[in-house]
């Protein structure tokens, strides 16, 4: 690996020796545009760690919008029901692409996603009106599924949406002391596909980023 500075734009760049391809030949990839040498060194160290751990993903300028519309949505056509696909398409075109579409998928962060959810709640609806938390949670489900598939496709190292926290709809928080209603609560979790029903009940609330469906149910 090597680090160099472009004299014209005064930015720092890292040249990475990546794993050899099928032909066995040496391959090098550049990543850069860093403002400081310290940032470039940090990127170099991170690339070395990923190569060592076998989770290296080649740098790409692919944007989230291009991935969602050109790769992910077409791949979903034969994997989900038509109604589910329609919901994915609406969320992608109405919310995700307009606000996050220009961000390179490898540079998307959990913090930016969290800010995006806040923007939607504040003015993400028609004519700049607030968007309901329940709708934002469904958008979150769409993004999380898409980035999960991006990890499987080797486009990103991790699913940054998995750690994001969408808003909790009003009335979804369970009230301590109503353990007698745990049965109906858990049955609803199972019915809606919640993957952590026991955790939901023990915490007296729905499972945040792990379950959007049961979070829309009112248990008070």
Quick rundown:
The protein has 220 residues and is mostly helical. The protein contains seven helices and three strands.
List keywords for this structure.
220 residues; mainly alpha; DNA polymerase, domain 1; 3 domains; three-stranded antiparallel sheet; 3 strands; disordered C terminus
Describe this structure in words.
- The chain is mainly α and 220 residues long.
- Helices cover 46% and strands 9% of the residues.
- It has helices at residues 37-53, 64-76, 82-100, 110-123, 133-152, 182-192, 197-203, and strands at 2-5, 12-18, 27-34.
- A hairpin with an 8-residue loop joins β2 (12-18) and β3.
- α2 (64-76) packs antiparallel against α3 (82-100) and α3 (82-100) crosses α5 (133-152).
- It is globular.
- The N and C termini lie far apart (59 Å).
- Residues 174-181 and 195-220 have low confidence and may be disordered.
What are the SSEs and their pairings?
Blueprint: E1 2-5, E2 12-18, E3 27-34, H1 37-53, H2 64-76, H3 82-100, H4 110-123, H5 133-152, H6 182-192, H7 197-203
| DSSP strand count | 3
Q: If helices are DSSP runs of H or I spanning 4 or more residues, what is the number of helices?
A: 7
What structural category arises from helix and sheet content? mainly alpha
Molecular shape? globular
Main CATH class of the largest domain: Mainly Alpha
Q: Write out the CATH superfamily name of the largest domain.
A: Tyrosine recombinase, N-terminal domain
**Strand fraction band?**
5-15%
- N-to-C series of helices and strands: EEEHHHHHHH
Helicity level: 40-55%
Low-pLDDT ranges? 174-181, 195-220
Task: Give me the side-by-side strand order of the main sheet.
Answer: 1-2-3
The total domain count is 3
| CA distance, first residue to last residue | 59 Å
Radius of gyration (Å): 21 Å
Here the CATH topology of the largest domain equals DNA polymerase, domain 1
Main sheet makeup: 3 strands, antiparallel
Which CATH architecture of the largest domain?
Orthogonal Bundle
If you average the pLDDT, what whole number results? 79
């Amino acid at each position: 690996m090597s680090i160099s500075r472009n004299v014209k734009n005064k930015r720092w760049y890292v040249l990475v020796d990546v794993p050899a391809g099928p032909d066995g030949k040496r391959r090098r990839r550049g990543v850069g545009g860093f403002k400081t040498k310290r940032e470039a060194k940090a990127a170099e160290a991170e690339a070395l760690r990923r190569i060592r751990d076998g989770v290296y993903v080649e740098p790409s300028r692919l944007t989230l919008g291009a991935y969602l519309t050109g790769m992910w949505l077409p791949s979903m056509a034969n994997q989900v029901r038509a109604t589910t696909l329609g919901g994915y398409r609406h969320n992608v075109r109405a919310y995700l692409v307009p606000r996050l579409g220009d961000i390179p998928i490898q540079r998307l962060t959990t913090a930016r996603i969290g800010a995006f959810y806040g923007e939607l709640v504040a003015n993400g609806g028609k004519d700049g009106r607030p968007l309901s938390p329940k709708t934002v949670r469904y958008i979150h489900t769409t993004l999380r599924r898409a980035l999960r598939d991006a990890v499987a496709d080797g486009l990103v190292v991790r699913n940054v949406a998995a750690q994001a926290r969408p808003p909790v709809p009003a009335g979804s928080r369970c009230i301590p002391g109503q353990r007698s209603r745990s049965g109906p609560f858990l049955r609803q979790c199972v019915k809606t596909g919640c993957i952590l029903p026991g955790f939901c009940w023990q915490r007296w609330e729905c499972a945040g980023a792990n379950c959007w469906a049961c979070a829309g149910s009112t248990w008070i």
